[in-house]
Amino acid sequence: MPKLTFFSSKHFLVLSLALNVSLILRLIVHEGEEPHNHSCFGPQTTGASIARTNSNMLISSSSSSNSTTCTTGSGSRVINLDHGDPRVYERFWRQSGEKSTIIIPGWQSMSYFSDVTNICWFLEAEFAREVVRLHTVVGNAVTEGRHIVVGTGSSQLFLAALYALSPTDAPEPISVVCATPYYSSYPSMTNHLKSGLYQWGGDAESFEKEGPYIELVTSPNNPDGHARISKVNRSQGFLVHDLAYYWPQYTPISAPADHDLTLFTVSKSTGHAGMRIGWALVKDKEVAKKMTKFIELNTIGVSKDSQLRAAKVLRAVSDSWEQGNPQEGESFFKFSHKLMANRWKQLRLVVEHSDLFSLPKFSPAFCTFFKEVLEPQPAFVWLKCEGNVEDCESFLRAHNILTRSGKHFGVSPKYVRISMLDTDENFSHFLERLSSIKS
Amino acid sequence: MPKLTFFSSKHFLVLSLALNVSLILRLIVHEGEEPHNHSCFGPQTTGASIARTNSNMLISSSSSSNSTTCTTGSGSRVINLDHGDPRVYERFWRQSGEKSTIIIPGWQSMSYFSDVTNICWFLEAEFAREVVRLHTVVGNAVTEGRHIVVGTGSSQLFLAALYALSPTDAPEPISVVCATPYYSSYPSMTNHLKSGLYQWGGDAESFEKEGPYIELVTSPNNPDGHARISKVNRSQGFLVHDLAYYWPQYTPISAPADHDLTLFTVSKSTGHAGMRIGWALVKDKEVAKKMTKFIELNTIGVSKDSQLRAAKVLRAVSDSWEQGNPQEGESFFKFSHKLMANRWKQLRLVVEHSDLFSLPKFSPAFCTFFKEVLEPQPAFVWLKCEGNVEDCESFLRAHNILTRSGKHFGVSPKYVRISMLDTDENFSHFLERLSSIKS
């Protein structure tokens, strides 16, 4: 056990205490309340493997409301951190009580239309107001002079952006590129309909084709958490900035993002993935119109219920920061930052004392939101298997840890992406399992 | 004024009384409560015309929460019945009170996943249960042996069906056909991404290409309200049945629909267009899987908030029929059937006494739901301009009535589609305006 010899007894104590505190907290706060949190994996494992066969994208959950059998031995329990389901924030929202509860009577929001005077005619004014307010509070994006387009998650807005930016009369599809490692779903989302408008062009670094192109700039990047800027940098490029993770809990806010087309989503900002609400800030009016047109042809608008609920949740986030009354509870960003900081600290403890794994290195930077120098603490770990392990995903899978292989992100299978946003319970089990793996 | 001479004083009295009753009712029930119901058309007209330039599909509303100027002269008021916004049911849902109100706390439904053991892993179990129950109550569709796939409206499910039914390795895109007059959005929804998987093939009646094809069977049909069966009827056809209007308020229910792939939506059944919730009943497991995969790639699932709200609303509809307690209020289908019957009666009164217009003829049939012989009363009027008027849309537009031309439905511009689902107020104004048009 060469790795374990590096653990001092102090390290063990810290890790063990952290695990216990988080498990006890979990028992106090959640026990018996959470329908989706069993330690049962009989049916899920089946469900998970079926889903994974169909897709490299999302797939399978570490929880289910339908499970009937359980595996109790901690080593045989499957820890699924393949997807980025943001369960980590549930505790905050439980504590927030009525401030984030929405009531919708049966007669409300029945029409297709929200405001026909707006380019995005299905955009709820209340949601738009809270988007602007939150960006002002956080300082992570310029909203002046931007059109807001709401989408069924930022996925739909990504497709809407491709549709809007593709030339309609080009002899061949426009290339869509992104520097590796890129979000594993970009290629299949771009290519699944074999569109004649756009097609996946691969790694932006090696892209050399002449003419127009669309470059995706994900910053901080999914999967590796690094801040990014455009790589291709030629005159005929359209840039789509996917800033899903540009929030204070994940990365120091350096300045308000000021791009042509920027995507955000509640899934990663507040943790409400089930709402399926994202938004785009769009400089060009014609692009905003075409994106709106795509959403009209795709889904005739976006759920009003979720827009109204998202408005309430974003308002609660802004209020929790601006009012800053400790009796009213912690601010969302303080809660989530502390939580991510704690998880990363625990993870580093485990990884630093292993010669099997390594983590990306990040430079601390001044965060204009927290007004402190802080380190990035991404929503995913981009873990590298060191030494002879060539297929990190298979290696971890043999230890019942499900992750996503680097090959889906356009790079070596020595890397895997691991979610840092799962429940406290799963995260604790993950750390425990990881620290027990011997070379 | 040749038309007007056909009106007997009795007819005028009936029409006038009907208009007054509906206007008075409207004032009692709605006044001051409805944010989206102004008689103001300054800004909207602009919004409407911009939106219509972009699309032949939806666009523009007869209402807005943002209007500041009003046109009071009844003749100059623009009556927009171009789209099928189902505002007509709002009154029922106001009366239903808490039975249809949903409360969602901030911590609920945060995960991407609903049930990973289900093929459609983002389908809320509660919604699926209410779908099955409602079809059992109404008797309009077989649910046994079917997979339910939920979608962001039935539009998304239509696209999911195209994706699922298209061969992946075909040398050319599969043809998508529908008999004329067909829903005006089918061609643009099919072709907007220039997919290499499928392409619009036009009128099913004249389709003669060899090999596989997808035929859309909309029954009752949008725009003309007629019951339909497949037209092409060859061995290599995949059928998609769009049964958005197969509900008792629109047409006599003859038998439970028993097809391979059937689409429904809350927009037209209960009037909740803003929810963007539809569902597909799918016989083949692999088709259900591929449709689910499409929705994953398109929007990573469907709003849980709207699924939960839809479950509540569908339950209220089933309860209102099964409990049948008059003190608890009328059943939804009795309310909506009576309302549509009343509108069609008034419309027939106006049109029958005009030599400018004509309506489709429908045969009464036994309705297994109401257990009576009843006549269809479609959600749209498929109006024909008789005589010399070749462009019915322009003719009505000159009288400030906005409709959708037959040319968008693959037929002659002598026809227009007019919504029968708008507010009582707009419908009354429409009848008044229509009866005042002279040849």
Describe the fold and architecture.
Chain A is globular and about 60 Å long. Chain A has helices spanning 9-30, 42-54, 90-96, 125-138, 153-165, 186-191, 266-269, 285-299, 304-322, 332-352, 392-397, 424-436, and strands at 79-80, 102-104, 147-152, 174-178, 198-203, 213-218, 237-242, 261-265, 277-282, 357-358, 365-367, 372-374, 380-385, 401-402, 404-405, 415-419. Chain A has a domain at 119-322: 3-Layer(aba) Sandwich (Aspartate Aminotransferase, domain 2), CATH 3.40.640. Chain A has 439 residues and is α/β, with parallel strands linked by helices. The first copy, chain A, has twelve helices and 16 strands. Mean pLDDT of chain A is 86; it is low at 1-10 and 17-72. The interface between A and B is large, with 92 and 92 residues. Chains A, B: Keywords: Aminotransferase, Pyridoxal phosphate, Signal, Transferase. Chains A, B: Belongs to the alliinase family. Chains A, B: InterPro entries: Alliinase_C, Alliinase_N_sf, Ethylene_sulfur-biosynth, PyrdxlP-dep_Trfase, PyrdxlP-dep_Trfase_major, PyrdxlP-dep_Trfase_small. Chains A, B: Its cofactor is pyridoxal 5'-phosphate.
